[in-house]
Amino acid sequence: MRFKTKGEIAWATSENQFTIRTKEWRYQKPIIAESKCKNCGICSLFCPSGCIEELGDSCVIDLEYCKGCGICAKLCPHDAIWMERE
Question: Is this structure's pTM higher than 0.90?
Answer without folding.
Answer: no
